[in-house]
Specification:
- By secondary structure, this protein is an alpha+beta fold.
- Among the domains are: about 70 residues, lambda repressor-like DNA-binding domains (434 Repressor (Amino-terminal Domain), Orthogonal Bundle), CATH 1.10.260; about 70 residues.
- The strands form 2 sheets. Strands 4-1-6-7 form a 4-stranded antiparallel β-sheet, with no helix packed on it. Strands 3-2-5-8 form a 4-stranded antiparallel β-sheet, covered by helices on one side.
- Helix 4 runs antiparallel to helix 5.
- About 15% of the residues are buried.
- About 15% of the residues have low confidence.
């Protein structure tokens, strides 16, 4: 099995991306991405930061994020227990009250006071809303028709038309991979497709708005509502486009 960093580097190079391209796309400095590919974990810092960077980088490359974190956990040195760290920095003389106990007590009191204040505001606001609803003026009723304007015999009363808001119309976006490329499709705020796909892959999506990002823009075509498919960009370009369907 290749090293964890080697697996990330191979996946990135397969998409034709540089470290700078990835850093710009996922907002992680290229020096940290290079440290991941070199298995240089101390250069990143605490293990909690390494795990966060691994998950983000793996999802971008279409790798199994949790599997990558699990492999890192096997390689990372055991973290120092919090109790031993606290004892290492606690310089309070034996027999006297610890300053951390006092600080913790103050924070707990402030938290209790804040929760009580929020609860009082919520209860007070709910009561005001109930009173305002109970004292609201009744809606005016329709005035009775004058006796001189009686409807013809046998005529049925016409029902008032009800106002209805038409729901947003869902349109269709068709995506085709003509060259191997990494692709992510987000429709109406939900990620519907993400990963590295071979040529010949075709998918369609319905919704009102879509964001499409391609690692090899020349290898991906997009068509909206049956229009002529167009390429997202040039060979090796990382392109993200927004489509209002």
């Amino acid at each position: 099995m290749p090293a964890l960093g080697e697996e990330f580097r191979s996946a990135r190079e397969a998409r034709g991306l540089t470290l700078s391209d990835v850093a710009e796309a996922i907002h992680i400095r290229s020096v940290y991405l290079n440290a991941i590919e070199q298995d240089d974990w101390p250069a990143i810092g605490a293990p909690v930061y390494v795990r966060g960077f691994l998950r983000t980088y793996a999802r971008f490359l279409g790798l199994d994020a949790e599997a990558a974190v699990a492999r890192f956990n096997e390689l990372a040195p055991p973290e120092r227990p919090a109790a031993s760290v606290a004892s290492a920095v606690d310089t309070t003389p034996r027999g006297g009250p610890s300053i951390w106990v006092a600080v913790g007590t103050i924070v707990a009191l402030l938290l209790v006071g804040f929760v009580g204040w929020e609860w009082w505001q919520y209860a007070h606001g709910a009561n005001e809303g109930a009173v305002a609803e109970a004292t609201a003026a009744p809606q005016p009723t329709a005035a009775p028709a004058e006796s001189g304007a009686s409807a013809p015999a046998g005529a049925a009363p016409s029902a008032a038309p009800s106002a209805r808001v038409a729901p947003p119309v869902a349109h269709r976006l068709a995506l085709t991979v003509v060259e191997r490329s990494w692709v992510r499709v987000t429709v109406d705020g939900t990620t519907r497709l993400e990963g590295i796909f071979p040529a010949g892959t075709a998918r369609s999506f319905t919704g009102t708005a879509a964001d499409v990002r391609a690692g090899n823009a020349a290898g991906v075509t997009v068509s909206v509502d049956g229009r002529r498919p167009v390429h997202m960009g040039g060979t090796g370009d990382v392109v993200e486009r927004h489509f209002t369907l």
